[in-house]
Design brief:
alpha+beta, four-stranded antiparallel sheet, 4 helices, 32 strands
Length: 409
C-alpha cells in the first residue's frame, strides 16, 4: 500500500516538474517572441528613418536640379512646413480681398490685395507674406509662386513656405511667367520701348532679351522645358488692332515664327510641352502649331466667355452664359453641356484635376467625370457663394466670401 502511495507521489512530482518545465519553456518562447517583435519594430523604425533620410536626399537632389543649390534651405523649409498642425477648416478671412487661389506644392495658396497666404491640408498657416503691390498678379507652377506688381517695379519668387528672392526693376512690369524648368520671363515697359522681354535662368542670370518699339505685349509664355518663349504682341494699324504671336528659341536667340491672329486680343497663352501654343482670345480659342504654320480655331460665336480653366494635358474648359465646352489640346470639342443655368445657376469658377473637371457655381460644387455631372456639395452646406476653388488630392478648397472651406471630393 505504501509502495502505491509512493508511486502516486512520484507521478505527481513528475507531473509538477513536467508542468514547470513546460511553463518555463513557454516563458522562454514568449520572451523569444517579444525579443523578435522588438527586433522587428526596431528594424522597422530604422527602415523608416533611412527611408525618410533617402527621401529627403532625393528631394534635395531634385531641388538642386530644379532650383539651384542655394535653395536647399527652401526645400528643407517646405518639408518642415508639411508637419505644421492647424485647427482645420473653416478658416476666417480677416478683411483681405482674395484675388486668386491656386495649389502650390500640395497646399492652398491665396493671393490677396495685401499679401500671399499658404495653408496646408490641416489648416496650418505656413506662409503669411505681406506685399505692397497696387495690382498684384502671379504665376503658380508646381511648387513655385512668381508674384509681381502689374504696372509697378516689384517681383518675387516663393515656395509654399519661404522666399527665394525679391527683385525690383527700374521699369514697369507688364506681365511675367514661370516655367517648370526653373526659368522665368518678365516683360517690362521702358522709356525706349513699348515692351522689353527678358528671360532668366534659375539663378537669375539673363539668358535672352528682346524688345519692340511698335508692339504692346498682352501675354507671355515659356515652354515647360524653358527652351522657348512666346509673346502675344498687338499694335494699331490704321484704326484696327493687329495681333500676332512671336515665338523665339532661347538657346540660339533666333525668332522661330510670327503668326497673325487679326484683331483678336489674347487674354491667356500657354506653351504646351509638344511645342504648340494654346491661346484664349476675346472671341476664340486657338491652337498654333509649333512651326507657326498650322492653326485650329474654336470660335465663340459672339458668346461672352465668363471664365475658363486649363488642364495640365492642354484641355480647356470654357464657361459661357448657358453652356460649358471642353476642348482638347488640339482645340477640338470633346464635350459640351448646354442648359447649364438650370443645372448650376451661375458658374463662378472651374478647375481641372487630372482627368476630372470641378465646377463652383451658385448652386454648389459639381464634378464632371465620365461625361456626367454630379453634385459634390450644395451651396447651402458651404454657407455662402464660392468665389474660387482649387483641387488637390482628395480635397477641394473653397474660397468663400468671408472664409476658406475644405471638403472631400
Amino acid at each position: 500500500m505504501s509502495g502505491k502511495r509512493e508511486e502516486v507521489k512520484e507521478k505527481k512530482r513528475f507531473r509538477v516538474k513536467e508542468n514547470s518545465e513546460q511553463n518555463e519553456g513557454a516563458k522562454i518562447a514568449d520572451i523569444d517572441k517579444l525579443r523578435k517583435k522588438r527586433s522587428r519594430n526596431a528594424m522597422l523604425k530604422r527602415v523608416l528613418v533611412v527611408s525618410v533620410v533617402v527621401l529627403a536626399a532625393i528631394l534635395v537632389i531634385v531641388g538642386i536640379e530644379t532650383a539651384g543649390t542655394r535653395n536647399i534651405s527652401i526645400i528643407i523649409s517646405d518639408i518642415a512646413a508639411g508637419f505644421t498642425r492647424g485647427d482645420g477648416f473653416p478658416i476666417e478671412i480677416d478683411g483681405a480681398t482674395v484675388r486668386d487661389a491656386e495649389i502650390v506644392g500640395g497646399s492652398l495658396a491665396l493671393l490677396t490685395d495685401s499679401g500671399i497666404l499658404v495653408y496646408n491640408k490641416s489648416g496650418g498657416e505656413i506662409k503669411n507674406e505681406l506685399h505692397e503691390y497696387a495690382d498684384a498678379a502671379w504665376d503658380v507652377v508646381g511648387n513655385r509662386i512668381l508674384a509681381y506688381d502689374v504696372g509697378g517695379p516689384d517681383l518675387r519668387l516663393d515656395s509654399k513656405s519661404a522666399n527665394a528672392f525679391k527683385k525690383k526693376y527700374d521699369e514697369k512690369i507688364i506681365t511675367a511667367d514661370y516655367s517648370k524648368s526653373g526659368r522665368f520671363a518678365v516683360i517690362t515697359e521702358t522709356s525706349r520701348r513699348l515692351c522689353e522681354l527678358t528671360v532668366y535662368s534659375k539663378d537669375e542670370t539673363e539668358i535672352f532679351k528682346w524688345g519692340s518699339s511698335d508692339n504692346y505685349a498682352t501675354a507671355l509664355s515659356l515652354s515647360p522645358n524653358g527652351k522657348f518663349v512666346a509673346v502675344a504682341a498687338v499694335n494699331v494699324e490704321g484704326a484696327r488692332l493687329s495681333s500676332k504671336i512671336i515665338a523665339f528659341s532661347i538657346t540660339d536667340g533666333k525668332e522661330l515664327f510670327r503668326y497673325s491672329i487679326g484683331d483678336k486680343l489674347v487674354l491667356s497663352m500657354d506653351y504646351l510641352s509638344d511645342g504648340r501654343i494654346s491661346l484664349i482670345t476675346d472671341s476664340a480659342a486657338i491652337t498654333v502649331g509649333k512651326d507657326g504654320s498650322a492653326c485650329v480655331e474654336y470660335d465663340f460665336a459672339n458668346r461672352t466667355l465668363q471664365n475658363w480653366s486649363r488642364g495640365d494635358d492642354g484641355r480647356l474648359a470654357l464657361a459661357f452664359e448657358d453652356e460649358i465646352v471642353i476642348l482638347g489640346a488640339d482645340t477640338v470639342k470633346l464635350f459640351s453641356q448646354s442648359g447649364t443655368q438650370e443645372i448650376f445657376g451661375n458658374i463662378i469658377h472651374s478647375d481641372f484635376y487630372k482627368k476630372d473637371l470641378f465646377i463652383s457655381s451658385s448652386n454648389g460644387i459639381y464634378k464632371l467625370s465620365g461625361g456626367q455631372f454630379a453634385q459634390i456639395i450644395s451651396d447651402e452646406k458651404l454657407g455662402g457663394q464660392g468665389l474660387k476653388i482649387a483641387v488637390s488630392g482628395n480635397y477641394i478648397y473653397c474660397v468663400l466670401q468671408d472664409k476658406l472651406e475644405c471638403v472631400e471630393k
